[in-house]
């Protein structure tokens, strides 16, 4: 590799490092994902905001699944359990009928 090429590679690496540091410090990704999540929840599906936010959320979910697969899978199952409706409450059986004793004894 020639000297100008190596300088170009070093410059590109320095720019990537500075960009990554600035992104991490500025919390740009977190704010972007929070905005996209809000748009998915509130915007109608025919809105441009919805379709702009959808790839952002899908990319964030894919990154989480790649970097933390067990945690993502556990969170998904917990979310699914919350989405299921609670079962209908059953009346408690009466104590006498449950034990097999009669309630009116004339002995």
Structural commentary:
The structure is a single chain. Helices cover 74% and strands 0% of the residues. With 107 residues, the protein is mainly α. Helix 3 (48-67) packs across helix 4 (69-83). The mean pLDDT is 82.
Protein topology:
Blueprint lengths: L2 H24 L1 H15 L5 H20 L1 H15 L11 H5 L8
Helix pairs in contact: 2-3, 3-4
Helix content class = over 70%
Shape by Cα distribution: elongated
On the 0 to 100 scale, the average pLDDT is 82
Which percent range describes the beta-strand content?
under 5%
Unreliable runs, pLDDT <50, ≥5 residues?
Answer: none
- Tell how many strands the DSSP assignment holds: 0
* Largest sheet: number of strands, sense, barrel closure: none
Task: Kindly list the characteristics that best describe this protein.
107 residues; mainly alpha; elongated
Quick overview:
The chain contains five helices and no strands.
């Amino acid at each position: 590799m020639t000297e100008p090429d190596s300088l170009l590679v070093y410059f590109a690496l320095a720019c990537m490092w500075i960009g990554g540091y600035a992104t991490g410090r500025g919390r740009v990704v977190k704010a972007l994902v929070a905005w996209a999540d809000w748009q998915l929840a509130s915007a109608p599906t025919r809105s441009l905001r919805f379709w702009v936010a959808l790839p952002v959320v899908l990319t964030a979910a894919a990154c989480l699944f790649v970097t933390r697969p067990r945690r993502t899978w556990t969170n998904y199952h917990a979310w699914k359990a919350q989405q299921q409706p609670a079962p209908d409450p059953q009346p408690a059986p009466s104590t006498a009928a449950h034990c097999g004793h009669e309630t009116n004894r004339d002995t």
